[in-house]
Specification:
Elements (H helix, E strand, L loop, with lengths): L2 H7 L13 H4 L15 H27 L4 E4 L11 E4 L6 H20 L2 H5 L1 H4 L2 H9 L5 H24 L4 H11 L3 H8 L8 H9 L14 H8 L10 H18 L38 H11 L26 E2 L2 E2 L15 H18 L10 H12 L3 E5 L14 E6 L4 H4 L15 E2 L2 E2 L4 H17 L7 E8 L3 E2 L15 E7 L3 E9 L7 H18 L4 E10 L4 E8 L6 H6 L12 H7 L10 E9 L4 E4 L2 E4 H17 L2 E7 L12 H7 L3 E3 L5 H12 L3
Parallel strand pairs: 1-2, 6-14, 12-13, 12-15, 15-18, 18-19
Antiparallel strand pairs: 3-4, 5-6, 7-8, 9-11, 10-11, 13-14, 16-17
Amino acid sequence: MRWEFYLINNPLKTNNMSKYGNSSYWLNDWDDEDIVVDTMNEVEKKSNDLYKLAASKRAISNFVNIVTNEQISVAFNQRGDSYTDGKSVVIGSNISEPKDFDIAVGLALHEGSHIKLSDFNLLNDIYNLVPQHIKDGAIKKGVTNPISVIKDLWNVVEDRRIDKFVFDSAPGYRDYYRAMYDKYFNDKLIDKALLSDEHTDECVDSYMFRIINIHNKNTNLTALKGLREIYKEIGLGTINRLKTSLDAFNVALKVFQLIMANLPSSEDGEGEGNGNDDQQNQQPENGNGENGGNGDSNMSDEEFEDLLNSVGNSPMGGGDDSPTGGNGMDVENLPENMEGGQPSSSNGGEDTKSVTLSDRQKELLKKKIEKQKQFMNGEVKKKQITKKDNESVQAIQESGSEVTSVGNGFENGWGRVSNGIQCIVVKKLTQSLLENEMFPMTSNNWYDIKENGIIKRLYEKEVVEGVRLGTILGKKLQVRGEDRSTVFNRQKHGKIDKRMISSLGFGNENVFSYIETDSYKKANLHVSIDASGSMGGGKWSNTLTNVVALCKAVDMIQNLSIQVSFRTTSNNTPYIVMAYDSRTDKFSKVKQMFPSLHAGGTTPEGLCFEAIMKNFLGSNNDMDSYFLNISDGEPYFGTGEFYYAGTNAFEHTRKMVKQIEAMGIQTLSYYVDSWLPENAQPSDGFKMMYGKGARIIDMVNVSQITKTINGLFLQK
């Protein structure tokens, strides 16, 4: 898929459209204002976070695949530091909040673009790429590991190259890159250090600090000898001239040579700081260090802010054409009174030497520089996820699960209007989800039976019986797939009836015939089943048997399809799962998975209808559509301040049923109960919800099922 095509057809929301910025476009179901998170227990919060992680992983995977135009694996970090190996992208698990999402996307895009654009084989051959005389010259200058320095410089140039390419090719992703650079580069302490006399002695560490942050608006190109020439060699404004990793390497090699040319010789005793010390940067005893603190600088925070504002509009600052925040203007075009991005003190500008760092800030600066180097080396530390949680997220993701807000505007029993509640929608029941503890209809159920750690298939015989009955039912419904032809003889037009030719000479003109073929349109049946705890026992056994029978019958009919969904609750959250879809699933799935399904939880009824309604197929000129509900009573669901029961719940469910009917879908609702007398009628609440389609059904009596289903299907 071309980036341009995708972005044109999927424009991103701007930051002012949501407090969460770009993440709101992809993760609008994350807005915790729609639910009362504080009322959740730890299990519920854990479940909520895992669904968020699954959603973010799915979204980030889509981003990476679009950028690379390949199916790139995206996985959570489970151990050690993550990195891009040329084949996969690893993300951290600290993205359960929208504020973290933009940074995670930017980092994943950055790593994914390396897969797309960087030559990893070339990187592995770096030792042979560097001429021996350059290595020998560096060692004479006291640089004991020149390959490591060149590799770091290569990473700097390569990062600018690939980020600029994606930045220009996919403008819809720019804010994600900005978020990433804000995280790792655009830091007030870095700004302050660039404006100070820190790292102004000619050594490798100083050059690396200045080069890594050379895009910063506060860069001073006179801070080190040759820095202006180095800036020109990198050429941020024309970085897209570099087409390959080899081009970036050649620039990095030239930059290294410029550094070496300006380093003092080792005999002078000034060759320290060669970039090869693995310094252990200790956390300072006081302060959080995020913004550098007040320290003992000669400038107050207010004065420093004024200084930043004075250089904020410099030719190297801001601009929409660079992911780093600098517009990459060549130094030849700088005004005479500008030295890099700051005013020159020799031309009337403010004396930046008055900016100094405290000892604490210096220690913090070391840590921030180390994080920048980790970023360049693809070694960003990312929060790990446990094996168990990762399996849950994987199961959720494979099932296509999503969280959607329902019940907005619902008025509970106390007259309070709700902003809605979240509902989990599982689009495809998979074996991995079936076996996962996150799935409420198996492993979390209190009456699960396990043998040798494996869930026993409690409803095996019910499913077997359903297959038998379905075979009978399928034969009785076969008329749906048959054409009916009627021959009309003795007509004045049509095809000549050979049997009537002999009568032509006797004034008989009605010697023609024609055939009318009467056929049924294709049909789709969606069966929604109440899987609350009250449906357990015999009601569940009989319901499961008959649903399997329906699936088997439909499997025998060519122009008929069926979907089966179950609705329940999971950790006080409405939950609906699409368990079977004959359009994409084989009938063997029913036989394999349905014996393990149990009833449990409460009855969110209309809330689940609202959540899954967009997946219903409406009737059209080519297809008739039907909706069959199976339940044993009235809706009931409550959590915190959201109470769903009584008349208001009846009315909400009825509203959802009317919306279903407005799609041209014919509805039928079975009320199942093992103890109702013969000729009993559904309750007033049940009839209120489902209207004329409400009826009591004996789920043991397959003939009743056949009669009512035929009543729907055989209507023309």
